[in-house]
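Before relying on records like the one below, remember that each one covers exactly one chain. Contacts with other chains, cofactors or solvent are not represented anywhere in the record.
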Amino acid sequence: MKTLIYRLAMVRGRKPITVKYGKPFWLRFCQCSGALFRILASQLPDLRGSLFAFNFQFAPAYAAWHLALTKMGIDRAEANQIIWLLNERLVTLVPRPFLHAVGRAYFSGFRKKASAHVARQRRGELHPWDWMIRYRETDENAFEIDITRCAMQRFAREHGAEGMLPGICRMDYLFSWLMGNGFQRTKTLGDGDDCCNCHYQLEGSCEWAPEKGFDDRK
């Protein structure tokens, strides 16, 4: 899955990035990020069975893109923009109406598995890298998760890519906006806070709007 994520995002991102930065930039980015991705993907811990196993499959691509762009002299803010573009191009392979159905199904399934994750956490059965959470049901449409340990952050730190945070944390707004889910958050581990305080709604609204910044909606 991690290789499919990387390759599809690169295929989808080629045209807009080439138009904006030119073909030599794109070719260098492909070469540099591809070499890094192969190394990083081979070192991704197996979190099979984790509540966040699918999310973790994005980690090698995120780290490879960030490290490659840094090596190419791109500053963090612009690197975030490029990584956001790659994510948006990847997810919009799926037509918007289907994305809404996918979003509802994904979060419904996520909700059902959250209690089991917490139970495994209490029994000390999680992988040492796995996410640690506090989970709360709000009502039939909403739930909350406080993330107190993040494998994505650990992976970034282990590979010198911690600068990709908190930029990639903002992907939750992009994905929720595209999938038609409600999402709010005011703290993230990537911003140096004590947790990521996530509030999700199966039916709701979420604004992406990166031009407005993320000071109050981390």
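The two ends are 27 Å apart (CA to CA).
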